[in-house]
Amino acid sequence: MEFLLEGFSEGLRRALTGDPEVWQAAWVTVEVSLWATLLATLLGLPAGYLLAVARFRGRGFALGLFQSLLGLPTVVIGLLVYGFLSRRGPLGEAALLFSPPAIVIGLTILAFPIAAVYGMASVAAVDARARETALTLGASPGRAAWAVFREARFGLVAAVLGAFGRVSSEVGIAMMLGGNIEGYTRTLTTAIALESMKGEFGFGVALGTILMAIVIAVSFAARALQRSS
Amino acid sequence: MSEAFRLEGVRVRLGGVPVLEVEALAIPAGAVTLLTGPNGSGKTTLLRVLAGLLAPERGSVVHMGAPLPFGKAGLPHRRRVTMLSQSPFLFSGSVLFNVGYGLRARGVERDEAEERARAALEAAGLAHLGVRSAHALSGGERKRVALARAMACGAGTLLLDEPTAEVDRESAERLRADIVSSAATGKTLVVSTHQAEWGRGAAEGEIRLEHGRVAPSPGPPGL
Hints:
The complex is a heterodimer of chains A (229) and B (223).
Chain A: H1 2-16, H2 20-53, H3 59-69, H4 74-85, H5 100-124, H6 129-136, H7 141-151, H8 153-168, H9 172-178, H10 188-197, H11 201-228
Chain B: E1 3-14, E2 17-28, E3 32-36, H1 43-50, E4 58-63, E5 66-67, H2 75-78, E6 81-84, H3 95-105, H4 110-123, H5 139-152, E7 157-161, H6 169-183, E8 188-193, H7 196-200, E9 205-210, E10 213-214
Parallel strand pairs in B: 3-8, 3-9, 6-7, 7-8
Antiparallel strand pairs in B: 1-2, 1-4, 4-5, 9-10
Helix pairs in contact in B: 3-4, 3-5, 4-5, 5-6
């Protein structure tokens, strides 16, 4: 136990004294997680809205597919995106592999079904009269959708936070597509994996504490934003 | 008297079941028309068709001389015709926000929309409710606020679905006064109710629906 406590206090000391290795990993984690959450939200919430309000051929299939994607193993996402971005892959010329944008692409694919499915559930829970009321008061379909989102805001914020929590704690995609390059693509999760393999459990726990602090801070920030609006 | 709506050969099915079959019907402009009939007779379905919210399976619906468009193309129509549902929905937020919603949807600036919403509430005798949360209103207040919201957005035609349902007698009388005063401004009103006696004092014509069909006309508007 002692080595754990020593490692933990050493890790916290390095974090609080501005150790560049810790802070760069934290920054990369926040950066790629926020981008991936933003992209997944912009793509997933409209998809969830359509699944909830529109009636079209193939809707049941789309819903089943999105729900299945919730359980998609991260290593499979990493493998697929790796194949696309590798030098011989269809997007190889973009030279994105082992860069933060590559991690963002993988994490967006991971977060998209979360935003879509939980977004759909939140919209479906809103009184169906909300959309019809907006339409009959002269709102365009887009403005009516916004009115529905406004009514569903608590569920939608939960969906977005769920997506953020998932991507910020992910390790397989970050490792495969980022390559765990110190100061460039190393995230807190890949750093934790590395430190654990080196036997630095305490430091890993300290990094995990920082990761949890980030997730909690984002959650409280979202809640404060929600209250102020 | 000119026609606000003309329907010919309209059929609506919901879940495969025919709920409205109208061979021919005209509704006058600038007047209050009462839509009566028992529960399930198709009153709400007819109003939703007139509002552009429900496309009929077949038949034509003409509003002010032009075919009524449905779907995305129906936005201009939905800005001329507003429907107040039997159990109106009020958005989260203040009463003032709700009453100004239709104006904001039409591109009116926030300050002006708020000012006009205040005036609409004042005219409806509801100025004291402006800052109150819409979810803290009584059933009668909700109906009156929803009516004020429908009137504030400036639509020339109002479709009111059972406005007196779930409200007490005093609120029902206030609603009738609101309807009469809006009719006086030249608006076209189609008011569905199963309390025909309540509406007859305000309406100039009556259409009766039974089993989704127009019954032999008790008043001037039905063809």
